[in-house]
Amino acid sequence: MIDLVDSHCHLDAPQFDADRDAVIARMAESGVRYAVNPGVDLPSSRAAVALALRQHGCIYAAVGIHPHEAKTLDAVTLKELKQLAASPRVAAVGEIGLDYYRDLSPRDVQRRAFEAQLELAAELDLPVIVHGRNPQGASSAHDDVLAVLRDWRTSLHAPRSTLHEHPGVLHSFSGDVAMAEQVVALGFFIGVSGPVTYRNADRLRDVVRAVPLERLLIETDAPYLTPQPRRGQRNEPAYVRRVAQAVADVRDLILEQVADQTTANACVLFGLAG
Question: pLDDT tens-digit profile of 243-262?
């Protein structure tokens, strides 16, 4: 039996309200041992923790404020995130970062929220799940994400912080090989999702070839970014196997090699165990 980890999915999303238990059952049947469910705002962070507690053994949570919701982060919200993160089922702070594609919060507000949550992660010694998205043809968000992460990574002092070696993951990576190399040099993992199966995703496949397998994670970002041949339908954690197979094809490996290594990577980063 192949063991897989969906390192990023949103099982608390309303798209799963009608059949969440069935989706989780299919996840297990497909060989997905664990799934990490990040919050995007305070209500979804609460829901992610509650779901992880109910589904003890296969679901872990992350808590955080997505850049779209950055304007909602204040001292009260930050305090509750810290309280939620005390749960033994919370594996990370996330989903946090910068999104200049939709710009649903002002960019300076996004950056302050990103930095505040990185500080929280350092205080709690939890890895981070980072979102970064640019406008078409631009690189400003990626540049700013790298700059913020570089400053934060420098502030982590080994051996006091376990984050010094494994600080987090850039989820559903959309940068190029040059950015990926900088991310890996900072100790971060690269998250690969459904677009690796898309016909026009040559840049992402180049990243998958270039990054050491020891630094790759696989994910669905369900219910979004459904891999081929189900693109356009609702995504779910069971489909992470298609992502793993695509990575194996790109790297000329067998599925078991990708499954074993990416599962080990996720367990190391997030401390997944039962």
Answer: 999 999 999 999 999 999 99
**Cross-strand partners of 35:** 6, 59
185-230 residue pLDDT tens:
999 999 999 999 999 999 999 999 999 999 999 999 999 999 999 9
Long-range contacts of 247-254 (CB under 8 A, 24+ apart): 247/192, 247/196, 247/208, 247/216, 247/218, 250/196, 250/205, 250/208, 250/209, 251/208, 251/209, 251/213, 253/213
List the domain range (segments joined by +) for residue 159: 4-270
Give the long-range contacts of residues 250-256, CB within 8 A, separation 24 or more.
250/196, 250/205, 250/208, 250/209, 251/208, 251/209, 251/213, 253/213, 255/2, 256/2
Interatomic CA distance for residues 61 and 54, integer angstroms: 11
Task: Give the CATH number for residue 149.
Answer: 3.20.20.140
DSSP character string of 147-180: HHHHHHHHH--TTT-GGGT--EEETT--S-HHHH
What is the C-alpha to C-alpha distance for residues 220 and 212, in angstroms, rounded to an integer?
A: 20
Report the C-alpha gap between 139 and 105 in whole angstroms: 18
Domain count, the chain: 1
